[in-house]
Design brief:
Layout (H helix, E strand, L loop, with lengths): L10 H32 L4 H27 L1 H9 L3 H28 L1 H8 L3 H15 L2 H16 L3 H8 L5 H20 L1 H20 L10
Helix pairs in contact: 1-2, 1-8, 1-9, 2-4, 2-6, 2-7, 3-4, 3-7, 4-6, 4-7, 5-6, 7-8, 7-10, 9-10
Length: 226
């Protein structure tokens, strides 16, 4: 029989657990909200556009989930070396993690973009949906390296116990930043602005991630443990 008693756990430790866990749950919520928002803006152009985007996002998600696995797989190593203040090894792990994400995302994005019409044709035979979905898929793929950067730094912040930066990134890519991008771009470029909004949000969120990482100085010469 396995029993768990939390009576001996200090309040500060419980708060730290929730502070790191909440951003992870918020990320899943933002994904649903992002898809709903995209559909809301696309529906005015017809149900075929919504269907095409749904297929494109599912194909894109297959690659994204593999990238999520790579990023979270490195999280225990990052947390261990951050806690041990092994700065040199921590920097190497983060660089390697970034390299893996960037190389994998570029290769997969290139292959999927090249074969976009054929991939869309697996799910739909309608020529209009295939054409629309191919463009949408390529728009999603073009910023995939930026999504890799976001994933790496999100896991770095979580492993280092930096709850606020992790929360900021969790609500940005498919949340606040995405909402701003689709609102602005839909008015500037209409339909093409809508399908380009996720790529724009990815680029902006990646920039935010790099800035937050530089400010927190997680792998700097002098670590400031939480």
């Amino acid at each position: 029989t396995l029993s768990i008693h939390i009576s001996g756990v200090e309040k500060q430790e419980l708060l730290a657990v929730f502070a790191i866990g909440i951003p992870a749950s918020v990320t899943n919520l933002m994904q649903s909200l992002g898809m709903a928002l995209m559909n809301r803006y696309l529906v005015q152009y017809g149900t075929e556009k919504v269907a095409a985007m749904g297929i494109a996002m599912k194909v894109n998600m297959i690659v994204m989930l593999i990238m999520v696995g790579f990023a979270f797989g490195a999280q225990p190593l990052i947390g261990y070396n951050y806690g041990a203040e092994n700065r040199e090894r921590l920097r190497k792990i983060i660089r390697f993690d970034l390299c893996v994400e960037l190389v994998f995302s570029v290769v997969c994005a290139g292959l999927l973009a090249l074969c976009a019409p054929q991939i869309m044709g697996i799910f739909m035979k309608d020529a209009g949906i295939i054409a629309s979905g191919s463009l949408m898929l390529r728009c999603l793929l073009v910023s995939m390296p930026c999504a890799g950067v976001i994933l790496v730094f999100t896991t770095v912040f979580q492993a280092a116990g930096k709850a606020l930066p992790a929360l900021v990134l969790s609500v940005s890519r498919q949340g606040v930043v995405f909402a701003l991008c689709i609102f602005i771009l839909s008015r500037l470029a209409g339909y093409y602005g809508i399908i380009a909004s996720q790529a724009a949000a990815d680029v902006l969120t990646a920039v935010i991630a790099v800035i937050l990482y530089m400010q927190t100085k997680i792998a700097a010469k002098k670590l400031s443990l939480p």
